[in-house]
Structure formats: structure tokens, C-alpha cells
Sequence to fold (297 residues):
Amino acid sequence: MVVLNRRAFIAVTAAGVVAPTVIAAKEQESSRMDWMTMSLEARNLAFNNVAHVGPEFARQKTEEWAAASKALRAQRPNHLDLAYAQAERTKWDLYPATDPKAPCYVHIHGGYWQRGSKEIFACMAEGVLAPAASLSQITKELRTALDWFAAQAGARGIAGPVILSGWSAGGHLTALLLDHPRVAAGLAISGVFELAPLRDSPHVNDKVKLTEAEIETLSPMRLPGVNKALSIAYGTGELPAMIASSRDFHAYRAQAHLPGDLIPVVKTNHFTILDELRLPNSSLTRAVLQLAGEWAD
Fold:
């Protein structure tokens, strides 16, 4: 992903984030699917984004992102691999702008909490990945990352408000970490905000091993909403379950009159939607700049 430099914007790579004030918690599964009557195979395919677009297409997109990330890291090598904790993957890549007080864009990569790295996605921080860590541990690591950022980023030329963003599993983590004091606003892209359906999805849960307690405490759909702007985006070519996840979560927050737009990105799937962040005039780039503009001097 390219550095977002409009309005002296700062691009940063980060890993993780937590979330939302008001509505009663209950198991809310996608309003468009009857999970109780679906077969195990159907449940598994409902959230299998690689199968939906095809493994070869997913591989090609990942290789494109990795090549672009390699080039960016070579161009901006001064603040890479900054450790915020002791584990192997707990490192930041930072890309400060000229103005230290410019808003800071922090992105969390996807991969169903078990795949991916900042070397592939560039502007995303790398946290502990399952199965080496539980989702609870991953979330804790990402809070630690933001704590480190709050304490250390100013000395590295980044002092402006943080606009947190994440894609796929990172979209879920963006919603979770919206409540961190250093985060001003968020953009959740193609996330899963109710974890219960993934309990019956082997391609996810064979490795993530969600517990009932994690489903209850780490599903943004079951948590009170944070009163910060959170825009929620999805591709119109995504799986129906993924589309419903974003739409249902936006409706859930809207019930509590919490701020944030719903952004359907036309003619994109779960993978091509991420390319929108590399285009200066795309709907996602404009959304990030709008969130940042609300905090501009």
C-alpha cells in the first residue's frame, strides 16, 4: 500500500485494535442466513474468502501486495521493525510525515488472525498470529502495541491523532480497539463482527480455536459501542455472509446513534477492496481523509 501523503498524512504499519456504549449483548448471527439449519460445509464456505475468489487469484493479489510492500519498505527504511514487546512478531513499521502533528493512519492486516505479516501488507503492524496465540492474546498484544505507540511515537515524529484501519480479521480488531485512548476514529474493512458463526468454520477455527468466552467478549456485535467515528466498508462482490456482517454491525451501532458511514465499494471482492487504499481518489481513501479531516487543525 502506498503512503497516504495528502494533507501531510502519516502512514504507519500496526497490528491490532479493540472496541465499542449501550446495547444489550446477545448472540446475533447474520440476519440473512439460518445457521442452525446450514450444513457444516455450508457454514465453512460462508466465510471462506479464498475459496470464493479462487486460490490462484488470492495468491496473485498477495504477491502484488508483497512486492509493493517490499518497495515501500526499501524507500522508507528509517523506522522499521521497532519492537513494542518481546515476542518475535511484536514489531512496528512507522512512516512519519513531514508534519509531526499530522493525523496518523494505522492499518491492521487480515488473515483470520493466523496468516499474514507487515512484510506483505507494509502499512500494517505485525502481531502474534494464531495458533501460536489465542485471539485473546492477539488482542492483548495489539493493545500493547498501541500503548507503545502512545508513549514512543512522538519521539519518532508522529504526534497527531490516530485513524485506525483494518481489513478482514483486522477489520474485526479495528472495531475492538476503537476504545483505545490513542485512537481517534476507525475504518473497518470487510470484517467479521459476530464470531459465533466461525466456531463452525473449520478453515478458521481449526487453528484459531475460539472459546465460548472469546465469542462472548470479543464479538463487537455483543459489546457496547464506543462513541467514536467508525466507518464500515465492504465489497459488493463479497460473500453474502461477509456483506451481512458489515451491514449488520453498522445497523447495530446506528441503533445507539454512534457515528460512522456504511461504505459499499462497488465491483470489489474481499481481496480487490484492499487495493482501493492505494488509489488517491477511491471511496476508502476519501473515507480515511474525511476521518482525519475531522481532527485537522
